[in-house]
């Protein structure tokens, strides 16, 4: 019997991505995997049902009975109820912030794998959905800032005079931050980056940006940063506040898994920025990096526009879906084996594989992810 993989239509508010795209469905089909797609699943990503059919998928509303179900957003309680008790679920499952999801999946007996829990090791790079979607968010954050800005990004030399380039500060030098720096520079802005990890300075400078030096030396033994004293932390925050006032655009990307976002942009900093400046806060889902952020909203405070999108990658659903689908493909292929002499693959979950074990949230009626366990225990 063929191994089936189901792709439901996303139901979360403002979620426009789809878990698999036709190109990836073709590749999985070539390996003997039968893909079932719910009608309209790709509608918001501008992928019509006909393209899924041309790729070899079957259109059916009965996607929840598949051996493997792949989603983007965490499932609702109703969706979990529709899963088979021995099925596999793959998707963003929020193991550190949604104890309800982990509990429901455990009670249903589903084996669930969270894309955000995949170990960040070299062998798993092709499966790293956090990075692929952060790339999209970092790019889109700059376009969002430019759209709300009252100023040009590039320097313009015109008959009416010269307009200097916008000064853009990116706080948090991860995947999203690096992409934001690169995109802002492509638009002609003068870019600066900052992170509490001093080792990221080289990455910032490799993109032609300036490293923001706050004058706090935190070098410790063995190449690691030492812990700052409270006085030094206060000095660091004040230095960052003072520096922030001189930028036209600030993009913040600092997130700490399972914890509230660190506050990097104070109300004082916002008040000191020039009228018409823009802050794009990508940490709104966990409270925001800016003290005046209102998650999910666009507000104006002290004549500064503060934008806090909650699912920015979904604003570019076509390419975001393509990247996510390739991440999923790599993970699914790790779960397959084709026995000698067989024409179709079968499931083989190697629990000694650090990727399989690390990404698992629930298994055999238990919550197995350490972070998810703590989240559920704390909510009990």
TrEMBL record:
<feature type="domain" description="Alanine dehydrogenase/pyridine nucleotide transhydrogenase N-terminal">
    <location>
        <begin position="6"/>
        <end position="137"/>
    </location>
</feature>
<dbReference type="GO" id="GO:0006740">
    <property type="term" value="P:NADPH regeneration"/>
</dbReference>
<protein>
    <recommendedName>
        <fullName>NAD(P) transhydrogenase subunit alpha part 1</fullName>
        <ecNumber>7.1.1.1</ecNumber>
    </recommendedName>
</protein>
<dbReference type="GO" id="GO:0008750">
    <property type="term" value="F:proton-translocating NAD(P)+ transhydrogenase activity"/>
</dbReference>
<keyword id="KW-0521">NADP</keyword>
<dbReference type="Pfam" id="PF05222">
    <property type="entry name" value="AlaDh_PNT_N"/>
</dbReference>
<keyword id="KW-0560">Oxidoreductase</keyword>
<keyword id="KW-0547">Nucleotide-binding</keyword>
<dbReference type="InterPro" id="IPR036291">
    <property type="entry name" value="NAD(P)-bd_dom_sf"/>
</dbReference>
<dbReference type="GO" id="GO:0050661">
    <property type="term" value="F:NADP binding"/>
</dbReference>
<dbReference type="Pfam" id="PF01262">
    <property type="entry name" value="AlaDh_PNT_C"/>
</dbReference>
<keyword id="KW-1278">Translocase</keyword>
<dbReference type="GO" id="GO:0005886">
    <property type="term" value="C:plasma membrane"/>
</dbReference>
<feature type="domain" description="Alanine dehydrogenase/pyridine nucleotide transhydrogenase NAD(H)-binding">
    <location>
        <begin position="146"/>
        <end position="308"/>
    </location>
</feature>
<comment type="function">
    <text>The transhydrogenation between NADH and NADP is coupled to respiration and ATP hydrolysis and functions as a proton pump across the membrane.</text>
</comment>
<keyword id="KW-0520">NAD</keyword>
<dbReference type="GO" id="GO:0016491">
    <property type="term" value="F:oxidoreductase activity"/>
</dbReference>
<dbReference type="InterPro" id="IPR007698">
    <property type="entry name" value="AlaDH/PNT_NAD(H)-bd"/>
</dbReference>
<dbReference type="InterPro" id="IPR007886">
    <property type="entry name" value="AlaDH/PNT_N"/>
</dbReference>
């Amino acid at each position: 019997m063929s191994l089936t993989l189901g792709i439901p239509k996303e139901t979360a508010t403002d979620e426009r991505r789809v878990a698999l795209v036709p190109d990836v469905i073709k590749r999985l089909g070539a390996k003997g995997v039968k893909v079932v797609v719910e009608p309209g699943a790709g509608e918001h990503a501008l992928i019509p049902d006909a393209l899924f059919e041309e790729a070899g998928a079957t259109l059916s509303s009965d996607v929840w009975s598949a051996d493997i179900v792949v989603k983007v957003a965490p499932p609702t309680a109703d969706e979990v109820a529709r899963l088979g008790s021995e099925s596999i679920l793959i998707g963003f499952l929020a193991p550190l912030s949604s104890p309800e999801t982990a509990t429901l999946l455990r009670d249903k007996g589903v084996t669930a794998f969270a894309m955000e829990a995949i170990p960040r090791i070299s062998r798993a790079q092709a499966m790293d959905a956090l990075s692929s979607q952060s790339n999209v968010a970092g790019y889109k954050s700059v376009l969002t800032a430019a759209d709300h800005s009252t100023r040009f990004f590039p320097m313009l030399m015109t008959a009416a005079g010269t307009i200097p380039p916008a000064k853009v500060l990116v706080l948090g030098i991860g995947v999203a931050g690096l992409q934001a720096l690169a995109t802002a520079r492509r638009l002609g802005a003068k870019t600066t980056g900052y992170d509490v990890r001093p080792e990221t300075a080289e990455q910032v400078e490799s993109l032609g940006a300036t490293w923001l030096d706050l004058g706090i030396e935190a070098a410790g033994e063995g190449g690691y940063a030492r812990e700052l004293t409270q006085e030094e932390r206060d000095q660091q925050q004040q230095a960052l506040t003072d520096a922030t006032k001189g930028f036209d655009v600030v993009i913040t990307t600092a997130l700490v898994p399972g914890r509230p976002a660190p506050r990097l942009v104070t109300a004082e900093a916002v008040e000191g920025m020039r009228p018409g400046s823009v802050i794009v806060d990508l940490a709104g889902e966990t409270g925001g990096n800016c003290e005046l952020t209102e998650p999910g909203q666009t507000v104006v405070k002290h004549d500064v526009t503060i934008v806090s999108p909650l699912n920015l990658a979904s604003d570019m659903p076509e390419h975001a879906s393509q990247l996510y689908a390739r991440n999923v493909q790599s993970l699914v292929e790790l779960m397959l084996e084709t026995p000698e002499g067989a024409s179709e693959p079968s499931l083989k979950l190697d629990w000694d594989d650090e990727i399989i074990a690390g990404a698992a949230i629930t298994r055999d009626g238990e919550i197995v992810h350490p972070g998810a366990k703590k989240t559920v225990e704390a909510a009990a």
